C-alpha cells in the first residue's frame, strides 16, 4: 500500500479530490510520483469506501514554470475539460504562489484564471465550438428528428456546443418536470455521441437568469458543472437572444458567465477547500 496526500475541494458542491504530483509537493512528503490506474480512480471516487468525489484532478509539471492538470471522472475515464475543477486548482496555486492571476494547462487548451475576490475565481474558458465534427457527433444531425421520451415527456430541439468537452442542451418551460436522472443516462450514451455527452436541461427565467440541471458524462447527476453552465450560456446567448452576461443557477449555487459572439467565454464563481488528507492505494 502507498500513502498519497490530497486536497478535497469543491465549486458549488461539484467536488474534487486533487493530487499534487509536482516534484516540490512530493518531496515535502518524502514521496515519489504515483501512476494512477483506472482502479485507483474508482477507489478514490467511491463515496462509501473512498474519499468520494465527482472528479479526480492530478497536477503535473509541464515545465519548471507551468503546470498540466488532468481530469478523471468517477467512472475512471479521462476527460479534457472541467471548469469548476480548473477554478479550484487555480485558487490553490494562486494561494501557494501569492498571485492573483495564473495560467494553467489542460490537454485541450491553456486557461487564464484570476482572483475576483477571496475564493471567487474567474476563468477564461476560450472559444466554444459549434460544428458537428467538433462536438463531435456521429453524423450531421437533422435536429427536428432528435427526440427523447421518458414517462410521457419529450426533450427535443437540442443545441450542441463544445467548450473543451461535448454538451447537448435542451431548453424547456419548467425544468422541474424533467427528471435529469432519467433523461441524462439515456442521452449520454446515445450513438449520436461517439465520445458520450454532457446533458443539460435548462429553463430561461429571464434574459439574464437561467436555471439548469446537469448530467455529466461519466459522473452522473452533479450539483454543478462549470462547462455545462458555459455551454448553456453560449446556446442561450447565440440562439435565444439572452443577455451577454448571465447568471446560471444550478442545484449547488450560481455561476456568472459572460460571452459575446465569436469571443471567449468567462466564468466566475466560488471555490472552497473542504479539507486535506491522505489515502492509501
Automatic annotation (TrEMBL):
* Gene Ontology CC terms, in alphabetical order: cytosol
Gene Ontology biological process terms in this record: lysine biosynthetic process via diaminopimelate
**MF terms per GO, please?**
diaminopimelate epimerase activity
Q: Which InterPro entries match?
A: DAP_epimerase_AS, DAP_epimerase_DapF
Query: What is the E.C. number?
Result: 5.1.1.7
Claim: Coiled coil is one of the keywords in the record: no
Quote the pathway field.
Amino-acid biosynthesis; L-lysine biosynthesis via DAP pathway; DL-2,6-diaminopimelate from LL-2,6-diaminopimelate: step 1/1
Gene3D superfamilies according to UniProt? Diaminopimelate Epimerase, Chain A, domain 1
Per UniProt, the keywords (alphabetical) are: Amino-acid biosynthesis, Isomerase, Lysine biosynthesis
Reactions this protein catalyses:
(2S,6S)-2,6-diaminopimelate = meso-2,6-diaminopimelate
Protein family membership: Belongs to the diaminopimelate epimerase family.
What is the name attached to this protein's record?
diaminopimelate epimerase
Q: What is the protein's species of origin?
A: marine metagenome
Amino acid at each position: 500500500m502507498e500513502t498519497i496526500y490530497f486536497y478535497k475541494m469543491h465549486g458549488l458542491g461539484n467536488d474534487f479530490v486533487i493530487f499534487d504530483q509536482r516534484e516540490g509537493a512530493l518531496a515535502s512528503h518524502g514521496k515519489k510520483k504515483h501512476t494512477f490506474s483506472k482502479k485507483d480512480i474508482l477507489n478514490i471516487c467511491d463515496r462509501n469506501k473512498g474519499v468520494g468525489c465527482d472528479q479526480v484532478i492530478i497536477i503535473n509539471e509541464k515545465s519548471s514554470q507551468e503546470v498540466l492538470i488532468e481530469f478523471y471522472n468517477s467512472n475512471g475515464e479521462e476527460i479534457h475539460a472541467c471548469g469548476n475543477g480548473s477554478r479550484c486548482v487555480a485558487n490553490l496555486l494562486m494561494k501557494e504562489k501569492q498571485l492573483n492571476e495564473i495560467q494553467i494547462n489542460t490537454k485541450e487548451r491553456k486557461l487564464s484564471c484570476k482572483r475576483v475576490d477571496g475564493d471567487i475565481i474567474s476563468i477564461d474558458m476560450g472559444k466554444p465550438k459549434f460544428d458537428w465534427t467538433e462536438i463531435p457527433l456521429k453524423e450531421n444531425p437533422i435536429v427536428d428528428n432528435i427526440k427523447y421520451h421518458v414517462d410521457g415527456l419529450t426533450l427535443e430541439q437540442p443545441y450542441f456546443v463544445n467548450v473543451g468537452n461535448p454538451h447537448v442542451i435542451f431548453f424547456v418551460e419548467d425544468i422541474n418536470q424533467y427528471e435529469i436522472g432519467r433523461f441524462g443516462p439515456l442521452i449520454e450514451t446515445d450513438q449520436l455521441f461517439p465520445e458520450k455527452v454532457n446533458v443539460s436541461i435548462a429553463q430561461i427565467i429571464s434574459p439574464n437568469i437561467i436555471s439548469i440541471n446537469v448530467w455529466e458524462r461519466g459522473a452522473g447527476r452533479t450539483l454543478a458543472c462549470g462547462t455545462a453552465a458555459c455551454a448553456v450560456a453560449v446556446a442561450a446567448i447565440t440562439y435565444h437572444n439572452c443577455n451577454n452576461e448571465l447568471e446560471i443557477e444550478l442545484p449547488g449555487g450560481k455561476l456568472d458567465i459572460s460571452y459575446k459572439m465569436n469571443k471567449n467565454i468567462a466564468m466566475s464563481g466560488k471555490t472552497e477547500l473542504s479539507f486535506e488528507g491522505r489515502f492509501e492505494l
